[in-house]
Amino acid sequence: MFDKILIANRGEIACRVIKTARKMGIKTVAIYSDADKQALHVQMADEAVHIGPPPANQSYIVIDKVMDAIRQTGAQAVHPGYGFLSENSKFAEALEAEGVAFVGPPKGAIEAMGDKITSKKIAQEAEVSTVPGYMGLIEDADEAVKISNEIGYPVMIKASAGGGGKGMRIAWNDQEAREGFQSSKNEAANSFGDDRIFIEKFVTQPRHIEIQVLCDAHGNGIYLNERECSIQRRNQKVVEEAPSPFLDPETRKAMGEQSVALAKAVGYTSAGTVEFIVDGDKNFYFLEMNTRLQVEHPVTELITGVDLVEQMIRVANGEPLTITQDDVQINGWAIENRLYAEDPYRGFLPSIGRLTRYRPPAELSGGLLLENDKWQGDAPAGDGFAVRNDTGVYEGGEISMYYDPMIAKLCTWAPSRDEAIEAMRNALDGFEVEGIGHNLPFLSAVMDHEKFVSGEMTTAFIEEEYPEGFAGVTLGEDGLKRIAAAAAAMNRVAEIRRTRVSGRLDNHERRVGTEWVVTLQGEAFEASIDADHDGSTVTFADGTALRVEGAWTPGDSLARMTVDGAPLVLKVDKITHGFRIRSRGADLKVLVRSPRQAELAKLMPEKLPPDTSKMLLCPMPGLVVKIDVEEGQEVQEGQALCTIEAMKMENILRAEKKGVVSKINAAAGDSLAVDEVIMEFE
User: Which of 3, 87, 275, 532 has the largest count of CB atoms under 10 Å?
Assistant: First the structure.
């Protein structure tokens, strides 16, 4: 076995690989850029080598710099994680020339599967089900229209070298096929330097389901079931689960066997993923093969008990698989939510900054805490639930503008899908992140969404269910009453604390009342509290009585309560006359007043927010790339005003209406905070 492995990556995947290497007794080497000097993966590794400035194209993806780090440390193998150099055949070739093992597939397999046209031809030859389409070179728009008619509308026009949704168009008629062909061709040339285009049938009611394969260099290959990855935004996965709530055993077996056949057809070794699009009738079609470890691999590990990173390392060491297909079972259900540094209330724009608070829920396995980062047993225990959080950040750390905005991958496991969803809901409620914008509220909303709970989602879920973006969650009356009861009980605890403050006026005693009015989400609930040693019974005006128990002390940022025996986890901040409470995707201002205070509060004029209609505000922390207008210039609706860069993405800010620029407060190169005024209008 290897003595030392270098991890050619950063963030949570580097930390994930280090954990398995440590379990196997293998020393690890981290590489880091200037921006990652204090990163968690650097702290966890046995050694660390600096490789350059923050931009990835000057550090993490510069093959020569990574090779220098290998030579300096004497690493015998390299695990590339995902992204960066993980699917770069030149990197695999450089390692081979150096006599260093690549913890991944052979160069030939990377090349064969890296090109969409080549990979589809190989899939067809291996008798893998593929989407009907035309894989040859398409000369012009006229030919694209002709081919589209032969396939039958709707069709998908794709760039061969594409990725991340670039160079992709859907056409429903001849005109859209003509326009889409030229747009895809231009986009592909600009993004990838390769303008080859292919056309295939567009699958309706599509679900994105992928098969995990594992192969060794001795001719053995197995599949470790599937992952459902249909909930995506801008072609990026957000929620994954294993197994899929849609597949039946026969379809799973057929998809798995075809995936292994494809892997063997290209001489594949290591872990890999074959992605399929599946229609409403369970017809499945090959999309592509990812020749690396997938981001969402933990859900497969949770239902099979197989450590994929360990298997990758053993295969790279020349060992045969010790697992047969008959050994692979489905134990329970696992769900993964990707926590991103992005603001869902601002169109999911990237958010950067310091994590002033980062407190993930405790990791549990079968109801027991993890020990030495190792799951106890082959898989989570038969009952209870498991919580796993793969992360690469820590409280006080900084989310950089240079890299992917993923903060963590929160996973839950339970014997059934409903129980895994409920475990995820509570885990999300207990996940504390402050200092940056993040998508925790959105993830909570998805976990409660009727379509997700039923398992009837497609890849269009987010687009269809949140067409205007995410504006938070509006709770139903039952949910509001549960929170109102908890807030009333918490307020009583706080009131008792206030009665004990020293230095009070002589002959003055502060009494804690039993009648309160709780106002939240525009509704007011009259509540009466009857407290005892174990908790409180809160009775509302309509006669509903809720029993509230739990430990909460004023100042605690997290309240773990039970209301009528059901758990309720609340993030709590103190505000005047109440609390700011966040739960299940809702962000609530909860006011708890005496009846007289509530009566007087109705007479107070409403405080209106400032008028910013004549200002352009920065929607996210970022860098000004350029200003496109000048003071005194008249602008039209939709006209580009400036470009802001954050998280490797350029965002063009446009005029919402016609106007005249009266003042510009920023210049190219300026670093701006959220809501900073960029320019003003007359």
Answer: 87
Catalytically active residues are 288
pLDDT digits (tens, 9 = 90+) for 55-90: 999 999 999 999 999 999 999 999 999 999 999 999
Q: Which of 328, 315, 317, 102 is nearest to 220 (CA)?
A: 315
Would you say 420 and 333 are in contact if contact means Cβ atoms under 8 Å apart?
yes
pLDDT at 164: 55
CA separation, residue 371 to residues 19, 231, 308, 408 (Å): 12, 32, 19, 20
Of 358, 351, 345, nearest in space to 436 by CA: 351
| Beta-ladder partners of 27 | 4
Provide the sign of the torsion angle of the four alpha carbons 155, 157, 161, 166, taken in this order.
Answer: negative
> E strands of 576-667, at which residues?
578-583, 586-593, 615-617, 622-627, 634-635, 640-646, 649-654, 659-664
Q: What is the pLDDT of residue 40?
A: 97
Q: Is 327 helix (H, G, I), strand (E, B) or coil?
A: helix
Which of these, 399, 486, 483, lies nearest to 439 by C-alpha position? 399
Give dist(CA 342, CA 348) in Å, integer: 5
596: three-class secondary structure by DSSP: helix
Structure tokens at 332: 């329970």
Q: Assign residue 29 a region: left if phi > 0, alpha if psi is -120 to 50, beta otherwise?
A: beta
- Rounded CA-CA distance 120/126 in Å is 10
Residues 93-102: contacts with CB within 8 Å, 24+ apart? 94/63, 94/67, 95/67, 95/70, 98/67, 98/70, 98/71, 100/70, 100/75, 100/76, 101/2, 101/76, 101/77, 101/316, 101/317, 102/77, 102/78, 102/316
Residue 474: name the closest of 345, 585, 589 by CA.
585
Among 279, 259, 150, 154, which Cα is nearest to 215's?
259
Looking at 381-476, list the stretches that DSSP marks H as alpha helix, in order from N- to C-terminal side.
417-429, 440-448, 450-454, 461-465
The Cβ of residue 330 has, within 10 Å, a number of other Cβ atoms equal to 15
389 closest CA partner among 434, 423, 419, 344? 423
Question: What length is written for the chain?
Answer: 682
Alpha helices in 170-243 (DSSP H): 174-192
Distance CA 51, CA 62 (A): 9
CA distances from 96 to 49, 77, 103, 114 (A): 21, 10, 11, 19
Using DSSP's 3-state secondary structure scheme, residue 308 falls into helix
DSSP character at residue 429: H
Q: What is the DSSP string of 645-664?
A: EETTEEEEEE-SS-EEEEEE
pLDDT of residue 162: 59
Which residue do the tokens 């093959």 mark?
63
Handedness of CA 451, 388, 76, 260 (dihedral sign): negative
Interatomic CA distance for residues 234 and 349, integer angstroms: 12
Q: Residue 518 corresponds to which tokens in the numbers above?
A: 């709780």
CA torsion sign, 596 to 602 to 603 to 609?
positive
Nearest to 647 by CA among 352, 311, 248: 352
pLDDT of residue 379: 43
> Which residues of the chain are modeled with pLDDT < 70?
162-166, 191, 365-383, 501, 503-510, 647-648
Q: Which H or E run includes 358?
A: strand 357-359
First to last CA, the chain: 70
Q: How far is CA 408 from CA 223, 350, 399, 482, 483, in A?
A: 26, 15, 12, 29, 28
| DSSP one-letter code for 561 | E
Please give the single-letter amino acid code of residue 556. Answer: D
Both tokens assigned to 379: 């898989």
Cβ neighbours of residue 450 under 8 Å, at least 6 residues apart? none
